[in-house]
Amino acid sequence: MKTKSLFIFLFLIIISQQIFAQQITGSWKGELDIQGTKLPVIMNISQEKNVYSATMDSPLQGVEGIPVDKITFTNNELALEITSAGATYKGKFEKEKFSGNFIQRGNTFPLVLERFDKKNNKDKSLEVLKLTSDINGSLKKIDDFLSYLEKNNAEAGEISIFKDGKEIYKRNFGENSLPDSQKGKETFQIGSITKSMTAIMIFKLIEKKQLDLNDKLSKFYPKIPNAGKITISQLLNHKSGLGDYVTGKDDMKWLTAKTSEEQIMNRIIEQGTLFEPDMKQQYSNSGYYLLTKILEKITKKSYTDNLKETFIDPLQLKNFYTASQKPSNVFLPYNYANKWESVKDFDFNNVVGVGDIATTPTNLNIIINAFFSGKLVSKESQSTIMPAEDKFGRGMSIIPFHSKIFVGHSGGTYGTNSLMVYNGEDDLSISYSLNADRIGSNNFVIDILSILYNTEFEMPDFTNKKVSSAELQKYEGDYTSKEAPLGIKIFVKNDGLFAQGTGQPEFPLEFAGDHQFKFDNAGLKITFYPEKQQMQLEQNGGKFLFDKKK
Q: Ranges for the Beta-lactamase-related domain (predicted)?
């Protein structure tokens, strides 16, 4: 049985005593600010036969209807005792809201409760989502969705879904639409999901007292900048301050060619530090490269042999490989440039322990279920690996979907995008790999989860919108912006429009109508204004105006 407590800290509240029904019955919503994370709570107060009762919802934690235990309302002050959580709340009622403090185990959090129309709420983030009761019907819809993508030559890959520890759905799709034969292929490059395996093996060493989270990097690699300050824990949770060796100095994709360990170490040293350890959190491939080398040093075994001992043999995995094994059954990656084009991916020997594993979505689900059922590490290690207030934990990260919190890891190479996630409340895990992707891997999983949780979503639009090369040529040129540091080159290729940022790979732009183009993989939209010789780029809520060089 999976542990729900990893995702839910329960507040049990019971309400008794007389209060003014006309003032406080109904729903009240507030937000706890827990180290930068906003946690909405909803109190639902009702009255029956002069007896008051209440429940509490915690949407982001996926729970509602939590019983509430004790209340007083005197002189316009609301007081709650939350014994099971070791917490109290006191709030003054003024101007149709309660303003006060929520205190839990010595920590004080301001909490303002305001009236909330729960019945007519349209904010999906405040809904407690539930899996549809007709799971087979949902799986049929997923099958139809994948067939739609396949028919429109939009995606190729494989997905696996586990419920209650068992695989309930698996499908490989779209591979026959790709230019080259994929016959005999069975595995995918999973990119940074590899880091979760590395972290678990590091924690196995910690459990054996061969390593400690507080050990300094200088114990193993004293020449790395700030090695005397950086701990194993900070390498695991991306708080070391180290840079990212995967990005080359002169060639962004320098790791597509064979590179030596000495060259990689020199690159890590050359990049120096971005900030002091523990001052902030920034994703670092360099940290996990060093962790892999530390693992091999302590165990005196290769990364491959460590994987065999921790995962492959105990879980009886097949089709699970590292770069040193040179797997020949890996699905080839493609990018869409108005037609599918093969991608030159990493030389995966350069990213061992960082992003080199090739396997199947089914194996990923087996691993993440084994992790949460306690088959891989102790409960203490499991808790330490898990993310708390930060997005990244020590090998796992938070992946939210409306009010549902999934935990796992994503992984991307230059041509394949993968995901491995688990939700403990529903005992549900989803893993996939996409080696050819037009709609964007983030959009893909949102659509899959929308089907499973019966929320609205729009099917991708593949209406054939052709624009002639002559028409596209009026957008061509080099663009610069006072609002963004990089320049963007717009050009025509394969009878389609492309964009390329300074020092970055090119990407195709799909016509969206009225001088607008988009690139769904990056959530990017560009609107051209030919008469003004300008374009506007929109991404992640930001808007940037670019001028065309004359």
A: 159-437
Segment 215-219 long-range contacts (CB within 8 Å, at least 24 positions apart): 217/290
Q: How far is CA 499 from CA 339, 487, 519, in A?
A: 16, 10, 10
- What SS3 state is found at 19? coil
Query: Which of 174, 170, 179 minimizes the C-alpha distance to 150?
Result: 174
Encoded tokens for 45: 């107060």
pLDDT tens profile 407-460: 999 999 999 999 999 999 899 999 999 999 999 899 999 999 999 999 888 888
User: Of 13, 20, 16, 14, which is closest to residue 93 (Cα–Cα)?
Assistant: 20
**CB-based contact 85:11 (threshold 8 Å):** yes
Instruction: Enter the tokens of residue 96.
Output: 């149709």
Look at residues 381, 396, 458 and name the one whose alpha carbon lies nearest to residue 429: 396
User: What is the crossing angle of helices 285-299 and 261-271, to 10°?
Assistant: 130
Domains of the chain by start residue, with CATH: 15-123 (2.40.128), 135-453 (3.40.710.10), 469-548 (2.40.128.50)
The closest of 408, 434, 404 to 178, measured between CA atoms, is: 434
For the entire predicted model, the pTM comes to: 0.78
Distances (CA, A) of 80 to 16, 101, 103: 10, 11, 10
DSSP-derived secondary structure letter, 302? -
Spatial separation of the C-alpha atoms in residues 384 and 44, rounded to whole Å: 34
Locate tokens 């729903």: which residue? 27
